[in-house]
Design a protein that fits this description.
Strand order of the largest sheet of chain A: 1-7-6-5-4-2-3
Structural class of chain B: alpha/beta
Strand order of the largest sheet of chain B: 2-10-9-8-7-3-4
Strand content of chain B: 5-15%
Number of strands of chain A: 12
Distance between the termini of chain A: 19 Å
Shape of chain A: globular
Shape of chain B: globular
Order of helices and strands of chain B: HHEHHHEHEHEEEHEHEEEEEHHEEHEEEH
Radius of gyration of chain A: 26 Å
Strand content of chain A: 5-15%
Oligomer: heterotetramer
Distance between the termini of chain B: 54 Å
Largest interface: A-B, 211 and 209 residues
Helix content of chain A: 25-40%
Bound molecules: pyridoxal-5'-phosphate
């Protein structure tokens, strides 16, 4: 009886034992499922489908009781950090509080039960919602129209690049290069490639901004456009943005705005006013839709008037009689999602925008930027701050000096911070900062939380320095061993790649 | 207003003072004055939570489709979602966590994804599954990209039986990659692959050999395709075989893996995910082990921690955009993790027997419904090929009219085939899907309303 | 800024630090609440209510952001064991799996949004539900009718005793004593007192059952009735129940059935068939409604035909035209709940009964009794089993020998089991067993879970014996120090009582 | 059938074999054959989960009241429950745990209860709060029992303004305790306490001095009682003062504690708990520190663990039934913990400012509504005393008729006062409650329908 699964004993509550996999809990013949009574004749498989298509044995997935299923996944959640558990100062990710009311919105039967192929006449509420959200996003970004189809930021980027391509193609203008700064997020160059362009990287200057001279040198009529994040991934506002726009437009290029950092400027300034032609937003960042452990997101793309005819279709539009319908823009690049985008994510974001309104969104930017600057100033005595000037909603510190003095790297600081009850910052990004620690407290963390985070980071630095001077060695045992209070200790990433075990079935026998 | 900023006025001032600033506006002096928004955003003021909920509920009230008994499918299916799946997938640790960049505090999501990958491997018959893509369409695009990279070719043969939206998305993204999408027509509801013998050298339709052959089974019209035939077509052209499969149908159908697929993609919505007007859904992507280094998106692997305890981590990250940048296998970053976790829970709830029963029940309902519809004067099957959960019928009136009329009777009658099938015999057909939720009484009522509507 | 609250840093994930109280997280001026727009004039307090009633300062409760509120209570849940986390072999409590579908039932708007004073014509669905549930409970217990008002088992007991009192009073028969066995649950004697009766305790015999001779000796016409649990709290079926009933009825007394252990006999036998006149059920045990950390429950009381006229009112009854209405029984003891009982708990229980049906409920009893007997047999080599004969759904082991040999008490075993990932059994109850460990695995735990529990208990005993023999001492350090992997270690209960701190405000300053 | 027993047939046999048994029936040989149920239970076979949900949903569909705009109160109020409260109170660790008998693994529930106790102490102005009782009625009964035990007397003066159901429950349980419930009538909507001077010796109404005086404020008719007057009546008789208070009203009203209450009880439903046809609700029980050893139910206290870490535990357990048995202060065991946790969350969400605003908004809505109703011909206030969230009016037609007619217009018009006020001027009145959920538009529509209904 000991073989096979079904064990509902938990890993010790809040302890460090591993949770067995669903497959270890499985036991042939056990079952959770039950199905609605229908009264339909119970034809056998071969009365439905010709034999040649039928499998011989049922697909062996897993066999667990509902009780064990529930216990298993509940226990897994106890091994998972989340916004609802604590602060998440993960730079570039805008891990703010996700209002619970948005969960209720996403569960409304009137929204959740609508089939995506229902004719427009039967889904007017949804079309209305999409049109209103589009208008709000345009108001926020200063653009003319938007597509809500992209399922995440990267999908938005690629959509934007295809818009760029279509725009130039419509003018008979075949361009081959897209410029991105060296501080750009990895999705930017990857999207450029998929958009069929070559990447030209421009360096950052010593202010941490795009080097205007280098940019000018890189610009010519082969340049389709430039992708910028503003504030950029160092958390710095590109102060030369107006000149940049002028220069890029000067060679006939377009400006693409990576909206990952839009949170910083809500109600303060708008990409459209800066001269951007194409803007993607990460609703799962700025507009508080939950990240879901890695997704779903939503990455709407807004464009300037002249690009509207190229937007993906179909788009929801209001006709003369007030009714809403789907319409393909005349020169549409085509569809980019199976349906209308991550609709329930869009509904959540719209609820968030309604709840905040113009006043609340500005307050978001104010507090996000204030928290980040407070933290930057506070940490400037214990960490390097490579570009130590007023930042926006995030900033990049560096453990370079700490590492030189104590051997403690950015990675160690991150792992040690987990022990302190905080999620780690983003590390080793952007690439242009050595031992980067990218910190974004977000506006929903209170001043006390931000201060506690500062104290924890200070403690980590102080303890490393102390250990280094005490032992005369350069390795701080404490941080290098961290984390020790988490469900598992530091994970062997190299082994995972070397001895790939991508599924339970690929596991070497008997382990 | 329901504000989520905790700072009191006093705290704002204390913090500004620490920075030597006199006002919040001074935080933004780096923004050139000309760019600063004068009057604030052109939006209404914020609303209290209760008003927000009311407003969205009213919008929901405008969706008559939500109330109709659903016979629509076309890639999105009205399955029952059990309470356990809903409750577990709604646990806030799953919902509000980020991508598991810090594995030591992300074992919950990582293990759930590892289990998802294992389950997907089992139902598709493949060795590798990623941790999700956006949707069925994006999974097809990534499969095409993988095949092109693997073969160094840039043509993709796509069966016309592939969901028309997915075909459109393939074409949209092909504008960037330069791939050529060649559609292979249907005959009698299933793909008529070019003869392998004659075309093997040149690669058949289009010019030059294809990187891959993409077939969907059951296809958009509900017809079961012959995967072996597609495999032969691929072999004939030296191409990879990409199969778009339905996870529910896998309960009784042979796996694409055992029939020779190199990559199996699909739409995971039927695995516990609500209709939700089309999203968030779940792009499924599985492949053979030899292709793992070109896998798009995240992959979770098992490893150990410093004390030898079992642990999970995202692995082979060198494929990904944050490391490989312009040379990455894909640009995907945020994916649909929560949906993958949902699917793992749902597959766990269904279990081996339940998945089979689910497939059977869909098939039974569809057969019962098909027989009732084709008994109606003027209603005929669109194709002779076998079907499972979904089938297409030719109707005496245009399909859209039938849908409109039946909505008045309380039914979402199906999906008009239309776009993507222009000029084919299927263009005017109605696609009807029957899930395990539909009772005999509902189907009887539907058929009798149908009869009246087309009379 | 460090003073005051708002800190959203979590206790280290799965670590052992305490979670600050809501009051420590509080900061003047912070707020979560928002209220619906109504358009109603904003009169001040003194325009609504005369000054003399008004408080001067607002009541100072707590001031936290929604983000901090959510993080706080989420973190608290990570410090809490529950059925959804693991097995809960807590004897007498029937901690079975609570099906998730019942949560959805309790949230149905058609049930949850109904005002309890709505006229019967507007709440027919609820009345129907109550009438159907009553019928099902009567079918299960073999009784004639039931009241669904009692909010828990103890409330049911008192209701039953008042029914007893009313029954005798109606016959002009003033009786003063109620008999309970020495193995009875504490609520039984407490309820007897509140029912206005004196407790007469009868001993258990060496089989663990009511001593029939002692009972006969205690019976006279001053005895209003007897309260029995069957199977009793030792998990043993009272085999003499028919004779007991005859004897009690013989002196004009009534038999009360404490239904805490009804799980064991579902579909096997019925209290009504045994001769019981009054039966309470704990729906939060037998019918899987969740315990909520200590409540709510529901304790319906079913009675034999002759007691029906005395039931609490109002009761839902079907009138001639099929409509349902409220009705007071002719000789009703009166109302015992503010409204109609814990209605949403009743709805959950009804859903559970519908899901299981006659076949499923019998299967419940089968598996519950099988699990318990398997565990009893298995543990009989490592623990004392004072009454080692076939048990029903639970049994009582004893750590008496273990304590004598090693110093490890039942309490230590319980605490040590927490480290193993299981909830502890009920300890030191029933009182008649020394160092009692009362184990009830329930039917929803798989054989593998029951086996893992057995292994853990065996390990604990073995480890104690080993330590005792190794050290030649009588104290096992391991078990006595347990638990060490839980959010807090063994709690100082004596200090809690000695230095009472019942609220945050009662806390000695500066701690 | 949706079964929750995991055992496979094979496992059942293995386990039976271990016990040396041949069948499941043999597990029950201890049950005398005559008692064994022959044909199984007289119930239908088990249903699949989806059918169960359907069935209960259909029953819910039979409750027209669920759809009506609610002006009913009478102790159960239609307040908004914010999403955060719902989500947190629904966390399965709170929902599926038992009574915290093992504090080391129950710190979540224990700390939440400690916070509940603190919050209740603050809003009632008392030093001690227990961890909940069943409902408002049971809290009154326990308060009476405490007072009787404390004073050695057995008479309770109960204001007729106390909720009539609570008075009934007091009487029901008095049959067991032998307490005498003496009702003190209302004049002009508030209690007319016997003159302390004349009655102090004999104890006033009934014979012998009362153990306690129980008043509710706002009372059942919505009228604010004078707690000082009740205190004087209690003092005159040497009795304890028991006050039933409304937690929402505490947002703007003086606390019973500062006005001399010894015990404050109440119904906690307005603190985030749904109407739910009357339960589960939340019995509130707070008292002065000198009464703590007679406190009914559970009490959580702060302490430390072996390493000095802050910890919580149920304490002073010697009062409780499992230890004191027939001498316990009460028989309560299972209480309403989850509701107490819900109330703590809700009070946390409301906060200091929100609780005040909630009380104000109820008061404003009620005033607006009262003015609109009494402007109708023939509708007059039932009493001149001040009110807050609720008020009673005399109507030209019987109150029940008004309720019936307004239901047709989409309103639950209120609660007919009726039973418990027989022979008083209030008997035929309609009790109307207005919470913060009611908008001006709803009240206007209600008043105009009201006017038509009574015309
Ligand atoms: C600066 C930046 N750009 C783009 C992205 C990609 O967005 P997504 O993950 O939604 O695809 C990210 C996400 O982290 C980002 O930080
Ligand atoms: C045997 C027995 N009787 C009565 C009760 C009291 O039931 P409740 O807690 O529902 O009041 C219990 C509860 O544990 C019990 O085990």
């Amino acid at each position: 009886m000991t073989t096979g699964g079904g064990r509902a004993s938990s890993a010790p509550l809040l302890g460090r034992d591993h949770e067995p996999t669903l497959f270890e809990l499985s036991r042939a013949g056990r079952r959770s499922a039950s199905f609605r009574s229908t009264g339909i004749p119970e034809w056998e498989a071969d009365e439905l489908v010709p034999e040649e298509h039928l499998r011989v044995e049922p697909v062996d997935t897993v066999e667990v009781s509902e009780r064990d299923l529930v216990a298993h996944f509940t226990r897994l959640t106890h091994r998972q950090y989340s916004v609802d558990v604590g602060a998440y100062p993960l730079g570039s990710c805008t891990m703010k509080y996700n209002p619970k009311v948005c969960d209720e919105v996403a569960a409304l039967p009137g929204l959740a039960r609508v089939h995506p192929a229902a004719p427009a006449a039967l889904s007017q509420g949804w079309l209305e919602l999409l049109v209103e959200l589009e208008a709000a996003l345009c108001a926020i970004t200063g653009m003319a129209a938007a597509t809500l189809q992209p399922a995440a930021g990267a999908a938005g980027e690629l959509t934007g690049l295809l818009l760029m391509r279509a725009w130039h193609a419509a003018a008979g203008d075949e361009r081959r290069r897209v410029i991105i700064p060296d501080s750009a997020h990895g999705t930017n160059p990857a999207s450029v490639t998929l958009g069929g362009y070559d990447v030209t990287t421009v360096p950052s200057d010593d202010r941490g901004c795009v080097d205007l001279e280098a940019l000018r040198a890189a610009l010519d009529t082969d340049v389709a456009g430039i992708m910028l994040t503003n504030p950029n991934t160092l958390g710095l506002f590109e102060e030369d943005i107006v000149e940049i726009a002028r220069a890029v437009h000067g060679v006939g290029g377009l400006l693409y705005y990576d909206g990952a950092n839009l949170n910083a400027i809500l109600g303060v300034t708008r990409p459209g006013d800066m001269g951007f032609d194409i803007v993607h937003m990460n609703l799962h960042k700025t507009f508080a839709t939950p990240h879901g452990g890695g997704g779903p997101g939503a990455g709407p793309v807004a464009v300037a008037e002249r690009l509207v005819p190229f937007l993906p279709g179909p788009r929801p539009v209001r006709s003369g009689d007030g009714q809403l319908d789907w319409e393909d823009p005349p020169r549409s690049i085509g569809r980019i999602h199976s349906w209308h985008g991550n609709a329930l994510v869009l509904a959540r974001a719209y609820a968030y925008i309604l709840a905040n309104g113009s006043d609340g969104l500005r307050r978001v930017a104010d507090a996000a930027v204030l928290n980040a600057n407070w933290l930057r100033r506070r940490l400037s005595s214990s960490y390097d701050i490579p570009f130590d000037r007023p930042s926006m909603h995030e900033f990049v510190a560096s453990a370079a000096t700490l590492k030189r003095r104590t051997g403690v790297r950015a990675l160690d600081v991150a792992k040690r911070l987990l022990e302190e009850g905080f999620h780690a910052p983003t590390v080793y990004f952007p690439l242009i900062v050595e031992e980067a620690l990218m910190l974004e407290p977000t506006e929903t963390e209170s001043p006390q939380t931000v201060e506690a985070l500062a104290e924890a980071l200070e403690r980590i630095a102080a303890e490393a320095l102390e250990a280094a001077s005490a032992e005369g060695s350069s390795a701080s045992p404490t941080a290098a061993l961290a984390p020790r209070t988490t469900p598992v200790g530091r994970v062997d990433e190299a082994r995972a790649a070397r001895q790939l075990v991508p599924t339970w079935d690929a596991r070497p026998q008997g382990e | 207003m329901a504000g989520y900023v905790p700072h009191t006025d006093e705290e704002l001032e204390e913090m500004l003072a620490f920075l030597g600033l006199g006002s919040l506006d001074e935080l933004f002096t780096v923004v050139p004055p000309a760019l600063r928004l004068a009057g604030g955003l052109d939006l209404d003021e914020g609303l209290p939570e209760a008003d927000v909920l009311d407003r969205l509920q009213r919008l929901g009230g405008g969706n008559r489709a939500a109330e109709l008994v659903c016979f629509a499918g076309a890639g999105a299916y009205d399955h029952d979602v059990p309470a356990a799946t809903r409750a577990l997938a709604g646990r806030s640790e799953f919902v509000t966590s980020y991508t598991p960049y810090q594995p030591e505090v992300s074992q919950g999501v990582l293990q759930a994804l590892f289990e998802f990958q294992t389950l997907l491997g089992r139902i598709s018959g493949m060795e590798i599954s990623n941790a999700s893509l956006y949707d069925g369409a994006s999974a097809c695009v990534e499969a095409a990209n993988l095949a092109a990279a693997q073969t160094g070719r840039d043509r993709i043969w796509v069966s016309q039986g592939v969901h028309p939206h997915w075909r459109q998305v393939l074409r949209t993204f092909a504008a960037g990659t330069g791939h050529e999408i060649v559609e292979i027509p249907l005959v009698d509801g299933v793909t008529a692959w070019p003869d392998a013998g004659t075309d093997s050298g040149s690669g058949g339709p289009g010019s030059g050999a294809p990187a891959a052959v993409l077939v969907q089974s059951p296809n958009f019209l509900g017809c079961l395709e012959s995967v072996p035939a597609a495999r032969r077509a691929a072999d004939g052209a030296g191409a990879l075989l990409l199969v778009a499969a339905d996870p529910v149908a896998s309960g009784i159908l042979r796996t694409p893996g055992e029939q020779g697929a190199d990559v199996v993609v699909g739409e995971g919505q039927p695995l516990g995910i609500s209709l939700g007007f089309g999203g968030p859904y779940l792009g499924l992507f599985t492949c053979r082990a030899n292709l793992v280094r070109r896998l798009p998106g995240r992959l979770v692997g098992e490893t150990v921690d410093g004390e030898g305890r079992r642990a999970y981590v995202t692995t082979l990250r060198a494929r990904e955009q944050d490391i490989r940048r312009e040379k990455a296998s894909s640009n995907v970053c945020t994916n649909q993790t929560l949906m993958a976790v949902t699917a793992a829970i749902q597959l766990g709830w269904l279990g081996t027997g339940g998945l089979r029963e689910l497939a059977l029940r869909c098939g039974r309902g569809a057969r019962y419904c098909r027989e009732a519809l084709v008994a109606i004067d003027g209603v005929t099957p669109a194709a002779p090929a076998p079907t499972l959960r979904e089938f297409a019928v030719r109707t005496p009136l245009p399909a859209a009219t039938v849908v409109g009329r039946l909505a008045e009777e309380g039914f979402l009658a199906g999906v008009a085939v239309g776009p993507g099938f222009e000029g084919t015999p299927y263009e005017d057909c109605l696609l009807v899907a029957v899930t395990e939720r539909r009772t005999r009484a509902e189907i009887d009522a539907y058929a009798s309303s149908f009869e009246k509507a087309v009379r």
